[in-house]
Specification:
It is built from four helices and no strands. By secondary structure, it is mainly α.
């Protein structure tokens, strides 16, 4: 990349430095836009995967595979050992543990949670760059929080 240089000794010496800084800022904005585009594309892919897995969760009748939120039967993951399964069935007698359905439900939760984090990252990138997309990004992030709240009930 070539930068314009002063043509005579009478021109200010800072002209060249000012142009370099302007080009650096332009390059940084281009990098930020590229990052926003890639994160947006990745979030779109995750959105379709989450919708597909949500449909599978519904069709497999696994939507209530874990009766509590954000964990599953009081744990971070599905209870696997005999002792964990005994505890789960004892403390949640109205919803006996079905491991396969619980894993389907938790996979959907993990994917949806990852999508939420990617959307928050996208919102952060949009706010970092002075963009006209701040209001839609804020609305999208609020919608993610609302969806998470619905998942709790």
């Amino acid at each position: 990349m070539s930068y314009p240089t002063p043509t005579s000794d009478s021109s200010p010496k800072s002209f060249h430095l000012w142009t370099v800084n302007e080009d650096a800022n332009l390059h940084q904005k281009t990098d930020q836009r590229t990052a926003i585009i890639w994160v947006a594309r990745f979030s779109l892919l995750l959105t379709f995967l989450t919708i597909g897995l949500g449909a599978y969760t519904r069709l497999a009748d696994a939507g209530l595979g874990c009766p509590d939120w954000p964990g599953c039967y009081g744990q971070l993951t599905v209870p696997m050992t005999q002792q964990e399964q005994y505890y789960a069935n004892k403390h949640f007698p109205m919803r006996p543990l079905e491991t396969q359905k619980a894993w389907i439900e938790m996979a959907h939760r993990y994917l949806a949670g990852t999508l939420g984090l990617v959307i928050f990252a996208l919102t952060f990138l949009i706010f970092k760059q002075a963009s006209k997309l701040k209001i839609p990004a804020t609305i999208l992030s609020a919608f993610v929080v609302f969806q998470a709240a619905l998942g709790m009930w």
